[in-house]
Amino acid sequence: MRQVVYLDEIIFVNLVMNLTVLWLTSRFIGKKGSPARMITAAAVGCIYALVVFVPGLGLAAGLYAKLLTAVMMVLIAFGFAPWKKVLRSFLYLLLAGFAVGGIASGLHYLWQNTLVVQSDGRLAEIGYNKWLVLSCTVALCYCAGKWGATLWLKRAGQTADKIPLTVTLWGKKVSLEALVDTGNQLVDPLSQHPVVIVEYEVLKPLLPEEICGLFHEGKTRDGSHMILSLSETSYAKRLRLIPFQSLGRENGILLGIRPDVIEIRYNDKKQQVKDVVVGIYDQKLSPETAYRALLHPQLLAS
After folding, report:
1. Which residues belong to the signal peptide in this entry (predicted)?
2. What does the alpha-carbon distance between residue 47 and residue 54 come to, in Å, rounded to a whole number?
3. Structural domain boundaries of the chain?
4. pTM of the entire structure?
5. CATH fold of 162-301, please?
6. Active site residues
7. pLDDT tens digits along 254-287
């Protein structure tokens, strides 16, 4: 019996599966790729899936071709980075691929054609719905990425809920205690970099007079006013407005600034991060001043 393969179905299924794998990878490495990058990377995976069907291109199905395709997908989705981070992203991509493929295979096996006895005593074959398998695979992977990644990142920092943090701005430094807050999922809307929330009083010695003036006058809850007030400063490109709905305030705005670098110390390791935004909070985060910052948990997995 000749089997018919529909090209459009192959492209669609591969695109969805590749996007699912890339999204899972982004959740566990703590780095979000832009939608355009993710779709482009997924499309590269689709092209590979189509090439293996071309007569005379059997080498495309080899191990090296598969690994090269995976590396290309990582670089396209998440950009170039130090080789250790690229390797880490690559390994997570492979693990995510195995997980997604395993879930899909398991559901396929569970719902494959089975024989049932009808009311008249005859046997009937029930086929599975491939679109149901695809939908359930994506749904299960979404749950794994949404809650599983949070638990994983929390576990990465569970040995030190409060860790030393150093923020450097314009060459000046301030050191403080930061709480690893799994509820802090804030990211900069423009760069998608994670946000570390720090009390204004701690950062005050590092901040320019214009920013300190806004906090002194209590005008930091009006995003438009802050933009107009600081738009002509020499450091305007470093500023960000971070929307949030936490810290006891709904539809709030945090003034954020890109630091020179932040330094995190945990598990006897020192880690410097530049791809981060510091959100300046105008109140105390802890009544007992036990900590002065809320650290994004994904930074521990960088």
Report:
1. none
2. 11
3. 7-152, 162-301
4. 0.54
5. Cathepsin D, subunit A; domain 1 (2.40.70)
6. 181
7. 899 999 999 998 777 788 999 999 999 988 888 7
